[in-house]
Amino acid sequence: MTFKHKLAHRLALLRDRRVVVAVAGLALLWFASCEKPVSVTEPNSSVAQLVVSPKVVSLQENQSQDFTAVGFTTTGDTAQIGVTWSVTGGTIDTSSSGKRHYGHYKNASCGNFQVAATSHPGLKTDTATVAVTCPVPVATVSVAPPTATVQVGQTLQLSATPQDANGTPLSGRTIAWSSDNATVAAVSASGLVTAKVAGPATITATSEGQSGTSSVTVTNVPVASVSVSPASASVSVSQTTQLTATPKDANGTPLTGRTIGWVSSNTGVATVNGSGLVTGVTVGSATISATSEGKSGSATVIVTSGSGTTVTLVGAGDIADCDAEPTAALLDTIPGTVFTAGDNAYPDGSAANYAQCYDPSWGRHKTRTRPAPGNHEYHTSGAATYYNYFGANAGPSGLGYYSYDLGAWHIISLNSQVDYGVGIDATSAQGQWLRADLAASTKRCILAYWHYPRFSSGANHGSDADMDAFWAPLYQAGATIVISAHDHEYERFAPQAPDGTADPVRGIREFVVGTGGASLYSFATPLPNSEVRNATTHGVLKLTLSDGSYTWQFVPIAGDSFTDSGGGTCH
Q: What angle do CA 303, 312, 329 make, to 5 degrees?
């Protein structure tokens, strides 16, 4: 084998062991065509070249690399030599195996370095170049958001971004999270903050000794509403009644541990202490308000003299379209006097209508019912069936108007059917009777009911100005309440004068209660003093009448939830 072939064979063996051999200049030695057998040199053989491999290496800090050094004779054979290693930076551990010499290199510093091997004998030298690269150090850590507010029980995801000295984000870095107040807000290894109790906490993200923070404020779930129970109450002078306030969140969930402030709108009538205990001072009405975190709820408290009897008046209008059993079932559970506000039996107020629709339902309470006629009663000539069915409870037959006393109250039932020739103005028989009846009554508290509403936001019928013939004398007499129907909805008005202006001192409060059982209507634009409206719920109006005061409650049929309640005083 020629020298040229021998050398190539040796280099190939080195390459097979993943060693890169640089042999520049060997091609200049021999080009002879004769072959020489491979021989093993002795230690004193002439060394023509020392080869270190690999030649160029890139490392990260603290990574290691094995280098190999092999000597060659002038004939291309491996030489029996010794080797010493040297480095310009880092450390190298050496070992040998046969004619191969190894250097195990490691460096903790960043930069470019050389690894050199020198043969003995011959002092032949070869070098390799090592580039040790280090990651760009973290200079700052940015945490987002830098400030945040989170409610108790909620979570917040923070993110941390390590950056170099130029503010360039660095990826692949380890981040550790911590909270300076884990009782208030805890943080997970991924930066997820969990709010525990109200208060402040600083959340810190740390990477390679550098830190960033986020200031987290934990707040209580805000109060969205305050419910006061009961919504209305009656208490005698010098007596007390306990109210309860419940703060709630936006979902209606009760909230605990909140501060509640109590106040009375009229301390001359009723006072309230810090725990909601109300004391009656003088006869009258007061609104008791409970406030928590800027949200308020209230209850109406009626203070009575403590004398006299409290009575109940309950009922509705637009009743029996052969579907009045649900409201009749309410009457089964409510004692007292029952009123009807007209249109008691549909569609014509006939004997068959009363027998088939009214009598099986509201008819169970006929003996305690004091009715008023509606326009559907007059679909039967002269409303004859109405008078025959109710008898003396409907007043003098054929008139449709009468009065009676109920506890401390004077109650008047009127006939509003002007469309059927019923007179209602001041010169009519009914008009003259009404004024005389009002003048004769000694009761401070007056309530009247009839069918057509003086004021109504209903889309089907609305207000009836003719009913001012009733409203005006009642207003002059100091009446407190008027009840009507005709529009099949529930509507409550603030106290009003005859012209529809608000009058909280002498005004009459009107209830439209066309919710007895007939199909419901809808509302148009609400009138100015309309306080509460509902067109989806059948039910009855329950009035608790005391000496000098009253409370109301709309009671829905089973399965419905709308209600309305409050109270007031007589003029």
A: 135
Mean pLDDT, rounded, of the chain? 90
Q: How much is the pLDDT for 303? A: 86
CB 511 within 8 A of CB 489: no
Q: Dmax of the chain from CA atoms?
A: 154
User: CA–CA distance from 33 to each of 10, 36, 40 (Å)?
Assistant: 18, 10, 21
Q: How many angstroms separate the CA atoms of 212 and 193, rounded?
A: 15
Asked if 233 contacts 278 with a C-beta cutoff of 8 angstroms, the reply is yes
CA-to-CA distance for 391 and 389, rounded, in angstroms? 6
210 bridge partner residues: 207
Instruction: Give the burial class of 250: count Cβ atoms within 10 A of its Cβ; 0-12 exposed, 13-18 middle, 19 or more buried.
Output: exposed
C-alpha closest to that of 303 among 316, 288, 314: 288
Contact 215, 146 (CB under 8 A): yes
For residue 47, the number of C-alpha atoms closer than 13 Å in the C-beta half-sphere is 24
The DSSP element (H or E) to which 13 belongs, if any, is helix 3-16
CB atoms within 10 A of CB 562: 15
Nearest to 455 by CA among 415, 493, 412: 493
The reported pLDDT for the residue numbered 233 is 87
Q: How far apart are CA 12 and CA 543, in angstroms?
A: 112
* C-alpha dist (Å) from residue 12 to 15, 20, 76, 156, 355: 5, 9, 12, 62, 119
Q: Any idea of the CA torsion for 484, 488, 492, 497, to the nearest 10 degrees?
A: -50
Please give the Cα distance from 66 to 115 (Å, whole number). 11
- 172-190 b/e with 16+ CB inside 10 Å = b? ebebebebebeebbbbeee
Please give the pLDDT value at position 283: 83
- Provide Rg for the chain, Cα atoms: 50
| 298 beta partners | 289
Instruction: Say whether pLDDT at 3 is over 60.
Output: no
Q: What is the pLDDT of residues 160-173, one digit of tens each?
A: 999 999 999 999 99
3-state SS class at 510: strand
User: Model-level pTM?
Assistant: 0.57
SS3 content of the chain, % helix, strand, coil (to 5): 15, 40, 45
How far CA 160 is from CA of 192, 201, 218, in Å, comes to 11, 17, 20
